[in-house]
Specification:
By secondary structure, the chain is α/β, with parallel strands linked by helices. Helix content is about 30%, strand content about 30%. A six-stranded mixed sheet has the order 2-3-1-4-11-5. It has a five-stranded mixed sheet with strand order 8-7-9-6-10. A four-stranded antiparallel sheet has the order 13-14-12-15. The relative contact order is 0.13. Bound molecules: 1-O-pyrophosphono-5-O-phosphono-alpha-D-ribofuranose (PRP) and zinc ion.
Length: about 300
């Protein structure tokens, strides 16, 4: 196994949960097959030379730092918590790329009836969280003296069972807070999934694979925002397109047989195309409009 590990890039992924879904979708779009997680800790995609380790997201930062795996996908919130675990913040991990999914925020929340108007209302209170380091840093920076209680799950129940006055937890849709009759008081930090590696350099084989993966992810990210648009337009209206379609500086203009005053325009828009844009295009006489998703985009 020791020899084999040198030639395979090991990536740690969340075993199950929101991050797992997002990671699978992204890697699939990158042409990497994430084989089923059912009861297997390790699987691999031989064609890419990558091995997957399915673990609890909370364990991923430590596994990268210790070299058990080379890279990993987990939440920025967890990275922040991990690197601020000691007073002297020495990060041995670095973000390669933000991934744009699993967006959430770390927020303070309290039972609906909790009176809150200003930060100093938190003085002397007990706050339960799975992110004690991030919370303590925030409290210190805000000159608040509060007691932090660490919980590793079910934080949203802490107030109801009398463990804490407030909680500090991740909020995404807000459904968990709502279901537990809690109100969000303030946001401490924003988060999304990130691709992370150790600061210590990888061997050249592995770093080339990481480069290849990053290129693919960037291609997927660029494509997901962009659209390929085809339309017919009077030739003298072409100049007006730039004001309507973002990224329309260099459209492809094609003759339309039998219609000398009209052209076909093909353009890649760098932004999503909304109904307003379509209506504006109709406004300058565009017809036969097609807006298509782009699968891959490599510049
Ligand atoms: C987070 C958090 C809440 C929930 C909030 O847990 O601890 O329970 O999500 O999301 P909502 O606002 O959409 O209801 P998550 O599922 O990320 O699991 P983990 O923190 O235990 O890994
Ligand atoms: Zn977790």
């Amino acid at each position: 196994m020791g020899e084999n590990r040198k030639s395979v890039l090991r990536i740690a992924l969340q075993k199950s949960g929101r991050l797992a879904e997002g990671s699978d979708q992204l890697l699939t779009k990158c042409g990497i097959k994430v084989k089923s997680r059912s009861n297997q800790l390790v699987t691999c995609d031989d064609s890419f030379g990558i091995e997957f380790l399915f673990v609890r997201d909370d364990d991923i930062p430590g596994m990268i730092e210790s070299g058990v795996c080379d890279i990993g996908i987990f939440g920025e919130n967890l990275l922040r918590e991990y690197v601020s675990r000691s007073v002297v913040q020495v990060s041995k991990l670095e973000t390669i790329l933000p991934l744009g999914f699993s967006k959430c925020r770390l927020s303070l929340a309290a039972p609906k009836e909790f009176p809150y108007s200003k930060l100093s209302d938190l003085n002397g209170k007990v706050i339960a969280t799975s992110y004690p380091n991030t919370l303590r840093n925030f409290l210190n920076a805000s000159n608040i003296e509060a007691n932090v209680v660490t919980m590793h799950g079910s934080v949203e129940l802490a107030c109801h069972i009398g463990v804490a006055d407030l909680i500090c937890d991740l909020v995404s849709s807000g459904a968990t807070l709502y279901e537990n009759a809690l109100k969000e008081i303030l946001t401490i930090s924003q988060s999304e999934a990130v691709l992370v590696q150790a600061q210590a350099p990888l061997n050249s084989y592995k770093s080339k694979l990481v480069e290849k993966l990053v290129l693919r992810i960037k291609g997927v990210q660029a494509a997901s925002k962009s659209k390929y648009i085809m339309l017919h337009l009077e030739r003298d209206k072409i100049d007006q397109l730039a004001g309507i379609l973002p990224g329309c500086e260099t459209p492809t203009i094609l003759d339309l047989k039998g219609f000398p005053t009209k052209v076909a325009v093909h353009v890649v828009s760098q932004e999503d195309v909304f109904w307003e844009t379509v209506e504006n295009l109709k406004g300058i006489g565009a017809s036969s409009l097609l807006v298509m998703p782009i699968d891959k985009m490599i510049s």
